[in-house]
Amino acid sequence: MDPAISRLKQIGLSEYEAKAYTTLLRDNPLTAYEIAKKSGIPSSKVYEVVQRLESKHMAQSIHRERSKMYIPMSVDDFIDIFKRTMEDSLVEVKAELKEFTSGTDASYTWHIKDYESLILKAKRMLDTCLGTVLLSLWPAEVNVLEKSIRDAETRGIKIALVHYGATNIKLGQLYRHPVEDTIYAQKGVRSFTLLADSKEVLTGNIIGTRTEAMWSMNHSFVMMAEDYIRHDIYAMKIVERFDPLLKEKFGSRYEKLRDVYSDEEIVP
User: How large is the average pLDDT for residues 6-29?
Assistant: First the structure.
């Protein structure tokens, strides 16, 4: 399926409406019969489809000699009107739905099973946070979240970021994790954790094309995630200052340090 048609369906158009509109953008003016022929819409359905486009102000009919023909609204006008209409509707819906809410239950966890939902949730958290952000993530996620992170930083949000892998990017207070190759080899995953205002946490793993994540405002869960990132940062600060000594003591990739089940200097 054409990506443009898929996107139009995501914002509420039917497949036939999306096909008719994109067909008109490519070639216009067209009769309803020509739209059906070029788009693959059944001729028995095409008149109903173009009428819906007219009602949504996405197309307009014009008369040429004996034929009724159609032209599309420009892309810029369509996007602008759609955005304004949607924003107005969302404001009204938000006000109306508040009558049904009795507060947020902070004890539950929300399971997220696809990458797009993980990123959308992360962007929402970054765009609405009020004071602090703690992040632990890999380059792929930095790339897709960079704008939201920078926007938060511009708003004065304090940001600390544990970055797995080499990077020259400057975002908040960044700490480079020194053993990314070893961790990736062991786990075969990219881990992700985002903590906003010490009140909500989004954490999970990206395993190839599969995503397993959870979001929660559960106090214990939030505290555990914050403790995890903070201790990672404490370790990064120690490594930055004492790396040669640590490698001499624990191995070039901190093998002995990462082995939590034994310690040659502590007798059980």
Answer: 94
What residues pair up with 202 in beta bridges, in sequence order? Answer: 194, 215
Strands of 30-31's sheet in order across: 30-31, 67-72, 59-64
pLDDT tens readout for residues 59-117: 999 987 778 999 999 999 999 988 998 999 999 998 888 887 666 666 788 999 999 99
Note whether 250 and 142 are same-domain residues.
Answer: yes
Split into its structural domains, the chain has a count of 2
State the CATH number of the domain containing residue 138: 3.30.870.10
pTM, two decimal places: 0.69
- Domain end: 47, 72, 97, which one? 72
Cα 231 from Cα 243, distance rounded (Å): 17
150 lies in the same domain as 244: yes
Residue 16 to residues 32, 55, 257: CA-CA distances in angstroms? 13, 15, 60
Range of the domain at 55: 3-72
Residue 174: both structure tokens together? 């960044």
For residue 159, the one-letter residue type is I
Distances in whole angstroms, Cα of residue 149 to Cα of each of 60, 71, 125, 164: 42, 41, 10, 16
Question: Measured in Å, how far apart are the chain's first and last C-alpha atoms?
Answer: 63
pLDDT tens digits along 177-216: 866 555 665 777 889 999 999 999 999 999 988 999 999 9
What tens digit of pLDDT does each residue of 136-192 get?
999 999 999 999 999 999 999 999 999 988 888 999 999 988 665 556 657 778 899
